[in-house]
Structures are given as C-alpha cells and as structure tokens.
Amino acid sequence: MDNPNQSENGQLILEPVAWYRGDLPDKFGLPRQSGLVPQLQGHVEMAVGFRRPEMLRGLEGFSHVWLVWGFSRNHTWSPTVRPPRLGGNTRLGVFATRSPFRPNPLGLSLVELDHIEWEDPLGPTLWVKGADLMDGTPIYDIKPYVPYADARPEARSGFAQGADRTLEVQMPAGEGEKLPEEKRAALIGILRQDPRPHYQKDPKRIYGLTFDHWNVKFRVEDDTVYVVAIELL
Q1: Which portions of the chain are predicted below pLDDT 50?
Q2: Tens digit of pLDDT for each residue in 146-156?
Q3: pLDDT on residue 75
C-alpha cells in the first residue's frame, strides 16, 4: 500500500492532526520549556479528519501527554546557536540545544492532560496545562507519557542544570484583579520566568506582552518584575 504521507521522492509529508489554542499569540512571553508555568492553560483542537473519538480512546487514563509540533514561524536554521541560558555569548551545536532554529522545525513538549471534552462541537478537545506553545501552533502527533520508560532521574543535563532563576512579581493595586483568578496565576508564572531577551537589561524599558485579551506592560529591575498596567485590547 502506498504511504499517503510520503512524496514521490520518498520525503515525509507531515499533516497537522490538531492545533494548539492558548493565551499567547506571539513568541514574546512564551515559557522557554514546557512545564515551567503549570498554571498556563490551553486546549488542543483536533483538525478536520481527526475529530474521531475512537482516535483518543484510552488517553483519558493518562495524566500527561507528549505533543509533537511545528515551529510555524521559524524558516531558518543554523548549525550552531547561542543558548540564552549561557548568556547568549557561547555557541553550541544546534543538536545540543532546544533552539527553535532547527533543520526540521519540530518541537516536543510534555504537558499535563487536565481533561478531555468529548462533546465539543469541533470534536474531542484536550484541555492541557503547562504548554510552551503559541496560539495556532500545529500539532503533528500526540502520545501518552509513560513514567517507567520516559522518566530518567539519573540522566545528565549538560549545560542545562536546573531551571533558570525566577523573579518576584509586583502588581499595582487593582491591576491584577482585571484578570480572572486562573488567568492571573498564569500571567504571574509567565512574568516570573523573565520573558525579556537575555541581551536586554534596561531597568527603565517598558515591555508589552499580549496575553489573551490584554496588553500587559511591565519593566524589570534587579530580581523584580514591576507590572505597570494591564489594558484590555
């Protein structure tokens, strides 16, 4: 039988099986790894042709899933990159990093599966937490996380020893209350990760972060994020 996912010259053709829907429409503000902001919620909307409940039968028994996805806005790559964790001054091989600028722009994220909405008008929907994905990211595969095979506590982590430092977040009275409680917790989690590029350290610079229906203005000084305003878009 011919493989419908293979072109005439034998190259693999990937078709999205789903799309990620979340509160971050841009790269700015995205967690640098999945799981760093567990409060961040989103959902996986199955693509037309894959909205069949039997394709997800049994997945509700798992607490976490792997998402194989595409860097939909990256069109270039480099054999060496400068990891932000190393201050952006040291070059390492692209295959030794999690850089989005890869020969094949594919990503892998581990997310918590909160629940499956079976009766959604668009077909079964996976509600997940802790994703590091932009709204509209194409999902190419979904696989269950199995701890006995996937967890390796003794593994070496190279230059990526432990998570980056987190910052304190301060909001003016009344600003945080503009967001629902669960959204506010997710926003604080995002800001604690210091979303600024590593080469920008101006404490007076005001940054704008699009989060759901809000424009969040903030600045960073020392180890504290100061929220200046939260404005409805």
Answers
A1: 1-2
A2: 999 999 999 99
A3: 75
Per-residue pLDDT at 6: 61
Beta strands 224-232; 168-170: pairing state: parallel
CA distances from 206 to 3, 26, 209, 217 (A): 52, 17, 10, 6
Question: So what's the pLDDT on residue 135?
Answer: 97
User: Among 38, 32, 44, which Cα is nearest to 141's?
Assistant: 44
Q: For 9, phi and psi rounded to 5 degrees? A: -90, 10
| DSSP structure string for 121-181 | TTS-EEEEES----TT-EEEEEEE--HHHH--TT---TT--SPPP--EEE--TTTGGGS-H
Distance CA 93, CA 161 (A): 17
Q: How many CA atoms lie within 13 A of 9 on its CB side?
A: 1
Length of the chain: 233
- DSSP H or E stretch at residue 231: strand 224-232
Rg (CA), the chain: 19
Token code pair at residue 149: 């095979």
- Determine the 3-state secondary structure of 35 from DSSP: coil
Tokens at 226, concatenated? 């100061």
pLDDT of residue 1: 37
Amino acid identity, position 109? S
User: In 10 A of CB 94, how many CB atoms?
Assistant: 16
Contact 88, 108 (CB under 8 A): no
- Of 113, 8, 132, the closest CA to residue 61 belongs to 113
